[in-house]
TrEMBL record:
<keyword id="KW-1133">Transmembrane helix</keyword>
<dbReference type="InterPro" id="IPR046112">
    <property type="entry name" value="DUF6049"/>
</dbReference>
<feature type="compositionally biased region" description="Polar residues">
    <location>
        <begin position="921"/>
        <end position="936"/>
    </location>
</feature>
<feature type="transmembrane region" description="Helical">
    <location>
        <begin position="858"/>
        <end position="883"/>
    </location>
</feature>
<feature type="region of interest" description="Disordered">
    <location>
        <begin position="370"/>
        <end position="440"/>
    </location>
</feature>
<feature type="region of interest" description="Disordered">
    <location>
        <begin position="37"/>
        <end position="93"/>
    </location>
</feature>
<keyword id="KW-0732">Signal</keyword>
<keyword id="KW-0472">Membrane</keyword>
<feature type="compositionally biased region" description="Low complexity">
    <location>
        <begin position="907"/>
        <end position="918"/>
    </location>
</feature>
<protein>
    <submittedName>
        <fullName>Uncharacterized protein</fullName>
    </submittedName>
</protein>
<dbReference type="Pfam" id="PF19516">
    <property type="entry name" value="DUF6049"/>
</dbReference>
<keyword id="KW-0812">Transmembrane</keyword>
<feature type="region of interest" description="Disordered">
    <location>
        <begin position="891"/>
        <end position="936"/>
    </location>
</feature>
<feature type="signal peptide">
    <location>
        <begin position="1"/>
        <end position="37"/>
    </location>
</feature>
<feature type="compositionally biased region" description="Low complexity">
    <location>
        <begin position="65"/>
        <end position="93"/>
    </location>
</feature>
Length: 936
């Protein structure tokens, strides 16, 4: 059923003869029109042309009947009327607003009272008085299908013609007042309106079905002595009849009135019960807030979810608990005692190295337990004896149990079948256990140890005989992860979720419809998924899914289960499909409880649930409240009562979720809407997470423990960061809230500090000299970490004519320097810049490149060419000179006088005096020498 809605004012129905008669007698003679069953319109009230005098008001409070009425203020449920013929054509006038506080019965059964009763309040929002307010019930034919019901909800049909022939004065009780009831401007009236269900003079319902029923309200709006009856309000309802009171189901026939069939095919019903929250734990198992303690304590959201579990059961398998294993992990940690960051919202400091193995064991300083400063904690020198390797079910670092001066409260729990929490408390004093790494955050003891212990005990009891759908660890945004290429990480979350759930709940895998863990069905956030993600989930063992119809495309009417082929055609995923319209009604009912509008919410939901059963399809119904819902206890109780009533009428039957999915016969394809993509985790945030995760992975492959008993292990520094990073792609972090940025800040700071401790030595002014073209470049790497670092040095100098040979990965001892000999080859001399960069063992960049200056005295190719050309030219010149000399000597031998200058003949005067020598041979030699000198 729905709340009242405004409709147009009905045609004027005044009779002049009746007015004259009333004036003559001095009496009010209200006359009722006759409703015609075959009429498509409402047809209530006095017939056309009939005037009815209901009172004799004074002229001072009457206005002309055709005066334009004022529009009333909008209320929660507005009731409008149709303007009378005297009103402005096409105008819409608001006369009344109304609320419905009760509709009885919600669902009509064979044992129900044969009377439909509506209790509510109407208020005159018009500026003038409305006289003689009356009501009449009308109904239409029964709605045959769910589709018809949904259409009636969205667009109510014109009130039908089946109903009582007479009008009844509206009053505060089911007994009609003997005198007229008027409503002045702003006045309200609490009313009770009733009509017989199966009586021929009532609604004449003869068989089961969902019937549109209209409660129409008429009043006299005439002024200045005029009488003008119009419809001042109309309330549209849906009445679900499972059996006619006093009549055997299916007996009787009202075919002429369109009564529905009494034969019902029960809907297979399953209601998901999410136990999901957002991550709260930071680095080293320190909770960054203590909000979870409040959530699992009496009055908290998760406490209420668990307390109400089981109320809506309508048979075995009708409820499936949906759990996030990360929540179970946090609760398990809390139950052992835990620490909370002293400053909420602040990032934890970067982790520093600590000893993880020693022959002795000491305790953590009290400052780290009871709220000491971060500086005190970071100076802690506690060591622990090495523990055994953690199992895969407990990847989170074991927390430090809180210690305080007083005692805390532990509890034992007994749980009813409905999951209600009952607690017996005892005083206990938690113990303190030294962690693998000293807590480096200022902390205080957590307050939720007892509440978490109680909650877990109650949960284990509540799910012992139920199916539990296990989400991947932290309920990640699977589509965003697959889109970002983080498939290996998503696969790890699936595996970890199964392991943690089995360990904490103590359950095995569900077999068929029996109790246990359902680990082969995926339930993505809000039921949306794309094909790539569904392909991936299928490849990781998911044979089923729970999806919204808004992410599916298929032909035919609404389906409660579909089959989806995977890419390549080798696998099929069978999905249970939620009903979007039905889910809205359920969420409203559960969230709002008994607040205003409950009767309408309840009867509307009853009609929707009954529709699929009466049309013979038996469409599966999967109800999935939002993951982080907060049930209203009163709302759950009302829903439970409705479901039990419907189950008793063969409308619904509890069925396990895998069974609903397995029965799918409709083929469908996946369609991922843009709105779902916009709701994903921010791509920038996912990229930042990926960068930090890759940085930790790179460090783990590059750092190793140095030799010695008391040397620290890098895993003690890195593993807490990896663990804290794991749940940070949770769908619950889509809005950017939570611990995500704080953990990423801590991890980023730790990565930065470790990388900064390993650097190439030297400043920007340092110059590296190469004595030859193939001289090695000697670079020194300083390691100031307490770990052995496996690293490479890459030099990029091709743009300046320098090539190098990678020396490979070398180990740099803790606290030491290591010289890297990098074979290089240069092709020019001079001073030029090149880039040197440290590369981690996995091939990723350790840090940004560092520019260094290289000076080379080697000759490059061009220089060598120039030298060779110059040398060749010089050699050629020497050859030419020598050739000239040899040629000159050869000419002297041929007979030319040696004492003649070039160009002289023998007849010319000799040059200078001829020397006298007693030795002719010597003279000849002197002459040759002189001749050569002259030639030069």
């Amino acid at each position: 059923m729905r709340g009242t809605e405004g409709i147009g004012r009905r045609a004027r129905r005044s009779r002049a003869g009746a007015v004259l008669l009333a004036l003559f007698l001095g009496l009010a003679l209200p006359l009722s029109g006759v409703a015609e069953a075959a009429s498509p319109g409402p047809g209530p009230g006095p017939g056309p042309g009939t005037t009815v005098a209901t009172h004799q008001p004074g002229d001072d409070d009457r206005i002309p009947a055709n005066a334009a009425p004022a529009r009333g203020a909008a209320k929660a449920i507005s009731v409008t009327g149709s303007p009378s013929p005297s009103a402005t054509p096409g105008s819409t006038v608001s006369y009344l607003t109304s609320t419905i506080s009760s509709i009885s019965p919600t669902v009509v059964t064979a044992t129900s009272v044969n009377l439909l009763t509506v209790v509510g309040t109407v208020t005159n929002t018009w500026s003038k008085k409305i006289y003689d307010v009356k009501y009449q019930f009308r109904r239409n034919n029964a709605l045959a299908t769910v589709k018809d019901i949904k259409t009636e909800i969205s667009t109510p049909a014109t009130p039908g013609g089946i109903g009582p022939a007479s009008w009844t004065r509206l009053g505060p009780t089911a007994i009609a007042p003997t005198t007229a009831v008027d409503l002045g401007p702003g006045e309200s009236l609490t009313f009770v309106a009733a009509v017989e269900l199966s009586s021929p003079t009532g609604l004449a319902i003869g068989s089961a079905g969902v019937y549109p029923v209209s409660l129409q309200i008429d009043g006299d709006i005439g002024q200045n002595g005029n009488v003008d009856y119009v419809t001042v309000g109309s309330m549209h309802l849906l009445t679900t009849v499972l059996a006619v009171p006093g009549v055997t189901t299916g007996a009787g026939s009202t075919t002429a009135n369109g009564a529905g069939s009494a034969s019902l095919t029960p809907n297979r019903l399953n209601m998901l019960w999410p136990l999901v929250d957002t991550p709260h734990v930071g680095v080293q198992g320190v909770f960054l807030d203590d909000d979870l303690a409040r959530l699992v304590s009496p009055g908290g959201r998760l406490y209420k979810v668990l307390a109400e579990l089981g109320r809506t059961d309508v048979g075995s398998g009708s409820t499936t608990v949906v759990v996030d294993p990360e929540l179970l992990d946090e609760l398990s940690q809390m139950s052992k005692g835990y620490l909370v960051a002293k400053t909420k919202g602040a990032a934890q400091p970067a982790l520093t190295a600590a000893v993880t193995e020693s022959a002795t064991s000491t305790s953590v300083p009290a400052s780290a337990i009871a709220g000491g400063t971060a500086a005190d904690s970071s100076r802690a020198t506690a060591t622990t004896t090495t523990r055994g390797a953690a199992t895969s079910a407990s990847a989170r670092t074991e927390p430090l149990r809180a210690t305080s001066g007083g005692s805390s409260t532990a509890s034992t729990t007994s749980a009813s079948s409905a999951g209600r929490v009952t607690t017996t408390t005892t005083n206990t004093t938690p113990t303190t256990t030294t962690p693998s790494l000293p807590i480096q955050t200022a902390t205080v003891p957590g307050t939720g140890q007892a509440a978490a212990t109680t909650f877990l005990a109650t949960l284990r009891a509540a799910v012992a005989n139920r199916q539990v759908l296990v989400l991947p660890y932290s309920n990640p945004d699977a589509v965003a992860m697959v889109r970002a290429g983080l498939t290996s990480q998503l696969s790890g979350l699936i595996t970890k979720g199964r392991t943690v759930a089995a360990k904490v709940l103590g359950l095995g895998a569900a077999v068929a419809s029996g109790p246990g863990l359902v680990t082969t069905m995926t339930a993505p956030e809000d039921g949306y998924v794309d094909q790539a993600t569904l392909d991936f989930m299928s490849a990781n063992g998911m044979t089923g899914a729970v999806l919204t119809p808004r992410t599916l495309e298929y032909s035919g009417d609404a389906a409660g289960a579909v089959s989806i082929g995977m890419t390549g055609g080798t696998r099929t995923v069978r999905a249970a499909v939620t009903d979007a319209d039905l889910l809205t009604e359920v969420n409203d009912l559960v969230a709002k409880g008994t607040t205003a509008g409950l009767p309408v919410r309840l009867t509307t939901l009853a009609a929707l649930l009954t529709g699929a059963a009466q049309d013979g399809t038996g469409t599966p119904i999967v109800i999935w409240p939002t993951d982080r819902w907060s049930p209203n206890a009163a709302g759950v109780q009302v829903l439970a009562g409705l479901l039990r009533t419907l189950a008793g009428g063969n409308v619904v039957a509890g069925t396990s979720l895998p069974a609903i999915a397995a029965a799918s016969t409709t083929r469908a394809t996946v369609s991922y809407p843009d709105s779902a993509g916009r709701a994903e985790l921010d791509p920038g945030y996912v990229a930042r997470w990926s960068q930090v995760e890759a940085g930790l992975s790179s460090l783990s492959k590059s750092l190793s423990k140095a030799k010695g008993l008391d040397t620290p292990d890098p895993s003690a520094q890195l593993s807490p960061l990896v663990t804290a990073l794991t749940p940070l792609l949770s769908s619950s972090l889509r809005d950017g809230a939570g611990v995500s940025s704080q953990v990423l800040d801590t991890a980023g700071a730790t990565i930065g500090s470790l990388r900064a401790a390993v650097q190439i030595t030297g400043t920007d002014a340092t110059t590296y000299t190469l004595a030859a073209a193939t001289s090695p470049l000697l670079l020194t790497v300083r390691n100031d970490t307490p770990y052995v670092v496996r690293i490479r040095v890459r030099v990029q100098g091709k743009n300046v004519g320098m090539t190098t040979t990678d020396p490979g990965v070398l180990s740099v001892a803790a606290g030491r320097s290591q010289q890297f000999r990098i074979e290089s080859k240069v092709v020019k001399a001079g001073k030029f810049p090149v880039e040197a960069q440290l590369i981690a063992a996995d091939g990723s960049a350790w840090g940004p490149p560092k520019t260094i200056t290289v000076q080379s005295s080697a000759y490059g190719t061009l220089t060598l060419i120039i030298i060779a050309v110059a040398g060749g030219a010089l050699f050629l010149m020497v050859v030419i000179r020598l050739f000239g000399r040899i040629r000159g000597r050869n000419r002297d031998v041929d007979g030319r006088p040696g004492n003649l200058r070039p160009g002289q003949t023998s007849t010319d005067d000799p040059v200078g005096p001829t020397p006298v020598d007693d030795q002719p041979a010597d003279q000849s030699s002197t002459d040759n020498s002189a001749t050569g000198e002259n030639q030069r």
